[in-house]
Amino acid sequence: MRTRIIDFHTHLGDIFHENKNISFKAPQHLPKYKDPFKELGEGGYRAPLIADDPDALNTLIDAGQFRIWEKGSLQSVREEIERNRMDYMVSLPVLPNTSFEETLAASKLEPKILPFTSPDFSLPVKEMQEKLREDIRMGARGLKLHPILQNVKLTDKRTYAAVEVFGDLKLPVTAHCGVNDYYKPGSPYQNIAPKEYGALHYMLALIERYPQYILIPAHAGGECGKEYLELADAVRKHKWKHVYTDTSFKGTEVIKELVELIGEDKILFGTDYPFGEAESSIALCKEAFSGKEDAADKVFYRNAAALLGIMA
Questions:
Q1: CB-based contacts of 108: which residues, under 8 Å, 6+ apart?
Q2: Sorted alphabetically, which keywords does the UniProt record give (predicted)?
């Protein structure tokens, strides 16, 4: 039987400040480059994504930008959906670099794309909230926050205002978690925001403020290795019922451990496409649920379908 798949964590277009307006252009073909994302996927994500070595980090940053230029277009997204037989891909824009409008337009051309939106923090709060309400009326399925790329902490009053629009409607809110750089030394964008804005404690504070909202710390809390344990400890300590997370950049053993710690009902399959490797991510998740077809269907499909209002 075919595995039903909703990838809950993907991106269309160039989410970085090097924005090349690529969403509706033909994919770029770049010279061969060192690709730690591919290597990590093929290695089963047994090592953390973020390394301490500066040279390794710079290589990862370059590869992230190159992968966007190669794989971030609508054409590439469609090919990814077809190649991996996905039912849906949740597409997460990050203003000011990618917008709800381009994600919505892509979803009209490819109905398997499910658009989220992102707050425009350049607007006054009331205008930002009204824009988000209009996005919901137009079809936004949830909210994406990226505290580093947007330079707004998850504990900022503007973040609270955006989150409340979605939380009050029982719509999901997902936020980047992870202390990592996106630009190399010398880039004019390097100091947009401190990388520490991605620290898990900000997300935990947001959850504590809104324990009844559907909140999703991405990457199981971070990309340095053990953040998922801190996340699970907090979820169990506070008995939070509305906290989910995704499996992006996580290997078989961590996925199994996450299920033991916070439950199979709270895990969402995700790749962080175009950075994560879908083929390896699917294989690793299938391995984690070998012999457990019902649990696998929850993580690959039903948990996300319930949050998104899709018939399971």
A1: none
A2: Hydrolase, Lyase
Among 301, 9, 267, 17, CA closest to 148: 17
Residue 1 lies in a domain: no
Residue 146 domain flag? yes
Residue 19 has pLDDT above 80, yes or no: no
Nearest in space to 101 (alpha carbons), one of 132, 128, 57: 132
Structural domain count of the chain: 1
What's the rounded Cα separation, in Å, for the pair 222 and 211?
20
CATH number at residue 184: 3.20.20.140
* Stretch 160-170: mean pLDDT: 98
> Quick one: CA torsion of 88, 77, 21, 104, rounded to 10 degrees?
-20
Q: How many helices (H) and strands (E) does the chain have?
A: 13, 8
Helix axes 74-83, 100-109, angle to 10 degrees: 50
- Position 49: which residue type? L
The residue to which tokens 């090919």 are assigned = 79
Cis preceding linkage at 96, omega within 30: yes
**Is residue 210 a part of any domain in this protein?**
yes
Cis check for the bond before 274: say yes or no (omega within 30 of 0): yes
Amino acid at 63: A
Position 185 in a domain: yes
Q: What ranges in 43-99 are assigned the alpha helix state H? A: 54-71, 74-83
Containing structural domain, residue 195: 6-308
3-state helix, strand, coil in the chain (%, to 5): 45, 10, 45
Cα dist from 157 to 65, 154, 163, 177, 246, whole Å: 31, 8, 10, 18, 26
- The tens digit of pLDDT for each residue in 52-110 reads 899 999 999 999 999 999 999 999 999 999 999 999 999 999 999 999 999 999 999 99
What does the chain come to in residues?
312
